[in-house]
Protein backbone atom coordinates (compact mmCIF):
# COMPACT_ATOMS: atom_id res chain seq x y z
CA UNK A 1 0.00 0.00 0.00
CA UNK A 2 2.92 2.33 0.58
CA UNK A 3 3.88 2.11 -3.11
CA UNK A 4 0.25 2.56 -4.07
CA UNK A 5 -0.17 5.67 -1.89
CA UNK A 6 3.11 7.27 -2.97
CA UNK A 7 3.22 6.44 -6.65
CA UNK A 8 -0.30 5.19 -7.47
CA UNK A 9 1.07 1.84 -8.67
CA UNK A 10 -2.24 0.00 -9.11
CA UNK A 11 -0.54 -3.36 -9.70
CA UNK A 12 0.54 -3.41 -6.05
CA UNK A 13 -3.10 -3.82 -4.99
CA UNK A 14 -3.08 -7.25 -6.68
CA UNK A 15 -0.67 -8.39 -3.95
CA UNK A 16 -3.09 -7.71 -1.06
CA UNK A 17 -5.03 -10.63 0.39
CA UNK A 18 -8.67 -10.10 -0.59
CA UNK A 19 -10.72 -12.46 1.55
CA UNK A 20 -13.67 -12.68 -0.84
CA UNK A 21 -11.68 -14.20 -3.72
CA UNK A 22 -8.00 -14.70 -2.86
CA UNK A 23 -5.34 -15.83 -5.28
CA UNK A 24 -2.97 -18.43 -3.82
CA UNK A 25 0.05 -16.11 -4.02
CA UNK A 26 -1.69 -13.35 -2.01
CA UNK A 27 -1.26 -15.40 1.17
CA UNK A 28 2.51 -14.81 0.70
CA UNK A 29 2.64 -11.40 -0.98
CA UNK A 30 0.35 -9.71 1.55
CA UNK A 31 3.08 -10.19 4.18
CA UNK A 32 5.27 -7.79 2.17
CA UNK A 33 2.59 -5.08 1.73
CA UNK A 34 1.79 -2.46 4.36
CA UNK A 35 -1.01 0.04 4.88
CA UNK A 36 1.23 3.06 5.54
CA UNK A 37 4.69 4.16 6.66
CA UNK A 38 3.90 3.68 10.35
CA UNK A 39 2.75 0.12 9.68
CA UNK A 40 5.88 -0.62 7.64
CA UNK A 41 8.32 1.00 10.07
CA UNK A 42 6.91 -0.69 13.18
CA UNK A 43 6.98 -4.09 11.47
CA UNK A 44 10.54 -3.52 10.24
CA UNK A 45 11.68 -2.51 13.72
CA UNK A 46 10.30 -5.64 15.38
CA UNK A 47 11.28 -7.81 12.41
CA UNK A 48 14.87 -6.66 12.87
CA UNK A 49 14.86 -7.42 16.60
CA UNK A 50 13.14 -10.81 16.54
CA UNK A 51 14.50 -11.81 13.13
CA UNK A 52 18.03 -11.22 14.40
CA UNK A 53 17.38 -13.45 17.42
CA UNK A 54 16.01 -16.27 15.23
CA UNK A 55 18.88 -15.86 12.75
CA UNK A 56 21.52 -16.03 15.51
CA UNK A 57 20.02 -19.22 16.93
CA UNK A 58 18.88 -21.03 13.77
CA UNK A 59 20.52 -19.40 10.72
CA UNK A 60 19.47 -17.48 7.59
CA UNK A 61 17.39 -20.19 5.95
CA UNK A 62 15.44 -20.86 9.15
CA UNK A 63 14.71 -17.14 9.46
CA UNK A 64 13.29 -16.91 5.95
CA UNK A 65 11.36 -20.15 6.28
CA UNK A 66 9.95 -19.08 9.65
CA UNK A 67 8.93 -15.68 8.28
CA UNK A 68 7.14 -17.17 5.28
CA UNK A 69 5.43 -20.01 7.19
CA UNK A 70 4.23 -17.84 10.07
CA UNK A 71 3.11 -15.07 7.70
CA UNK A 72 1.22 -17.46 5.42
CA UNK A 73 -0.25 -19.27 8.43
CA UNK A 74 -1.44 -15.97 9.92
CA UNK A 75 -2.99 -14.93 6.60
CA UNK A 76 -4.67 -18.31 6.19
CA UNK A 77 -6.28 -18.15 9.63
CA UNK A 78 -7.30 -14.52 9.04
CA UNK A 79 -8.90 -15.54 5.75
CA UNK A 80 -10.80 -18.35 7.48
CA UNK A 81 -11.99 -16.22 10.43
CA UNK A 82 -12.51 -12.65 9.23
CA UNK A 83 -15.47 -11.44 7.13
CA UNK A 84 -15.26 -12.04 3.37
CA UNK A 85 -15.11 -8.31 2.61
CA UNK A 86 -11.80 -7.99 4.52
CA UNK A 87 -8.39 -7.21 3.08
CA UNK A 88 -5.20 -8.31 4.85
CA UNK A 89 -1.78 -6.68 4.47
CA UNK A 90 1.32 -6.57 6.63
CA UNK A 91 4.00 -8.63 8.28
CA UNK A 92 2.53 -8.53 11.78
CA UNK A 93 1.56 -12.21 11.79
CA UNK A 94 5.07 -13.19 10.72
CA UNK A 95 6.60 -10.80 13.26
CA UNK A 96 4.52 -12.31 16.07
CA UNK A 97 5.58 -15.75 14.83
CA UNK A 98 9.25 -14.75 14.91
CA UNK A 99 8.76 -13.28 18.38
CA UNK A 100 7.33 -16.59 19.60
CA UNK A 101 10.07 -18.61 17.92
CA UNK A 102 12.80 -16.37 19.35
CA UNK A 103 11.40 -16.80 22.86
CA UNK A 104 10.93 -20.56 22.57
CA UNK A 105 14.36 -21.36 21.11
CA UNK A 106 16.13 -19.27 23.78
CA UNK A 107 14.03 -20.59 26.66
CA UNK A 108 15.40 -23.15 29.09
CA UNK A 109 12.81 -25.87 29.54
CA UNK A 110 12.58 -26.60 33.22
CA UNK A 111 9.26 -27.26 34.96
CA UNK A 112 9.06 -23.76 36.52
CA UNK A 113 9.39 -22.06 33.14
CA UNK A 114 6.73 -24.31 31.63
CA UNK A 115 4.40 -23.54 34.53
CA UNK A 116 5.00 -19.79 34.06
CA UNK A 117 4.23 -20.05 30.35
CA UNK A 118 1.03 -21.99 31.02
CA UNK A 119 -0.21 -19.54 33.66
CA UNK A 120 0.75 -16.35 31.82
CA UNK A 121 -0.23 -17.84 28.47
CA UNK A 122 -3.84 -18.27 29.56
CA UNK A 123 -4.05 -14.59 30.48
CA UNK A 124 -2.41 -13.46 27.22
CA UNK A 125 -4.62 -15.71 25.07
CA UNK A 126 -7.74 -14.45 26.85
CA UNK A 127 -6.78 -10.79 26.25
CA UNK A 128 -5.83 -11.42 22.62
CA UNK A 129 -9.10 -13.26 21.99
CA UNK A 130 -11.06 -10.34 23.47
CA UNK A 131 -9.19 -7.98 21.15
CA UNK A 132 -9.77 -10.31 18.19
CA UNK A 133 -13.50 -10.40 18.83
CA UNK A 134 -13.56 -6.62 19.06
CA UNK A 135 -11.57 -6.28 15.84
CA UNK A 136 -14.16 -8.12 13.76
CA UNK A 137 -16.67 -5.40 14.57
CA UNK A 138 -14.29 -2.42 14.31
CA UNK A 139 -13.27 -2.27 10.68
CA UNK A 140 -13.23 0.49 8.11
CA UNK A 141 -14.24 0.35 4.46
CA UNK A 142 -11.67 -0.02 1.71
CA UNK A 143 -12.06 0.46 -2.07
CA UNK A 144 -14.85 -1.64 -3.56
CA UNK A 145 -16.58 -2.26 -0.24
CA UNK A 146 -13.71 -4.26 1.23
CA UNK A 147 -13.03 -4.04 4.95
CA UNK A 148 -9.54 -3.03 6.06
CA UNK A 149 -9.03 -3.31 9.80
CA UNK A 150 -6.59 -1.04 11.50
CA UNK A 151 -5.16 -3.98 13.49
CA UNK A 152 -5.60 -7.63 12.56
CA UNK A 153 -5.47 -9.26 16.00
CA UNK A 154 -6.37 -12.61 14.42
CA UNK A 155 -3.12 -12.47 12.41
CA UNK A 156 -1.11 -11.60 15.52
CA UNK A 157 -2.47 -14.52 17.52
CA UNK A 158 -2.35 -17.02 14.67
CA UNK A 159 1.20 -15.98 13.68
CA UNK A 160 2.29 -16.65 17.26
CA UNK A 161 0.47 -20.00 17.29
CA UNK A 162 2.05 -21.02 13.97
CA UNK A 163 5.43 -20.14 15.52
CA UNK A 164 4.69 -22.43 18.47
CA UNK A 165 3.59 -25.19 16.09
CA UNK A 166 6.72 -24.76 13.97
CA UNK A 167 9.05 -25.00 16.98
CA UNK A 168 7.14 -28.02 18.29
CA UNK A 169 7.26 -29.82 14.91
CA UNK A 170 10.97 -29.13 14.48
CA UNK A 171 11.67 -30.37 18.01
CA UNK A 172 10.36 -33.76 16.88
CA UNK A 173 12.97 -34.03 14.10
CA UNK A 174 15.91 -36.15 15.26
CA UNK A 175 19.14 -34.16 15.45
CA UNK A 176 22.63 -35.60 15.60
CA UNK A 177 25.31 -32.92 16.19
CA UNK A 178 27.99 -35.21 14.73
CA UNK A 179 26.36 -34.82 11.27
CA UNK A 180 27.71 -31.28 10.92
UniProtKB/TrEMBL annotation:
The keyword Membrane applies. Pfam families: Rhomboid. GO terms for molecular function: serine-type endopeptidase activity. The keyword Nucleotidyltransferase does not apply. It comes from the Eukaryota. One of its GO terms (cellular component) is membrane. InterPro entries: Peptidase_S54_rhomboid_dom, Rhomboid-like_sf. SUPFAM superfamilies: Rhomboid-like. It is a multi-pass membrane protein. Keywords: Membrane, Transmembrane, Transmembrane helix. The chain crosses the membrane at residues 61-81, 87-105. Belongs to the peptidase S54 family. This is Peptidase S54 rhomboid domain-containing protein. It comes from Sphenostylis stenocarpa. The lineage of its organism: Eukaryota, Viridiplantae, Streptophyta, Embryophyta, Tracheophyta.
Amino acid sequence: MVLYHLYKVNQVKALYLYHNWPAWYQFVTATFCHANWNHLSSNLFFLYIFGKLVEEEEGNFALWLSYILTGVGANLVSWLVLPRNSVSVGASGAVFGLFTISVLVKMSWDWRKILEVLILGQFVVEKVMEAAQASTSLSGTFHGGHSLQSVNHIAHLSGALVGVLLVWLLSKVPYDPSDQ
